[in-house]
Amino acid sequence: VEAGDFARRVDELSRQPTRRCFHCHKCTAGCPVATEMAHGPDRLLQLIHLGQEDLVLGSDDIWLCLACETCGTRCPNDIHLAPVMDALRRLSLARSTPPAQPRLALFHHLFLDIVRTRGRMHEAGLMAAYKLRSGDLLGDAAAGTRLFLKGKIPLRAGVARPGEMLRRVFATPTAERRQR
Ligand code: SF4
Ligand code: SF4
Predict the structure, then answer these.
(1) Which atom of ligand 1 is nearest to the CA of 24?
(2) pTM of the prediction?
(3) Cβ of 105 below 6 Å from ligand 2
(4) CA-CA distance, 122 to 146, in Å (whole number)?
(5) Of the four listed, 62, 97, 119, 150, which is most buried by Cβ atoms within 10 Å?
(6) Could you give the 3-state DSSP secondary structure of residue 124?
(7) Closest CA to 61 of 101, 27, 93
(8) Tens-digit pLDDT profile for residues 126-179
């Protein structure tokens, strides 16, 4: 695989002009989770352009992105890393090897599944499904209890039928939604 092929696929899927990056580091300097990442946003772009597909798609970094858009607002070249990370996660899930952060991948999947079927989030349902599917029954128990006691995790699920707009959101690839 040529180095450029991987970068081209990422650019197409994310609809971001990552080749414009001149590595000024502004995105990484503002990224709230860069200190937790092995590479950080701008080095990930460098690795993409060097064709380091296995290293990038097998990296924890792509699962740590919070999609906060700080990088996009700081970038002098108008490159948004959130859709790039989305594209990388999709490419990672399409591979036969398991994702670097299977629990985060599971959390993403369950979160979207609840919104798709219920039309809105139900935190208690998400927590229960995540705990059962991940087997991590006791992790974050103290934080979960505090949130529950503060009424942040209501047990009753609100009713909101998924409307036409939500159906369209799920039918449209992420990158296309961001263009609108
Ligand atoms: S801010 Fe933009 S140009 Fe600068 S390193 Fe990040 S992506 Fe590249
Ligand atoms: S969108 Fe992701 S990569 Fe960009 S600043 Fe936020 S967490 Fe970091």
Answers:
(1) 4
(2) 0.81
(3) no
(4) 17
(5) 62
(6) helix
(7) 101
(8) 999 999 999 888 888 888 889 888 888 888 877 677 678 888 878 866 545 554
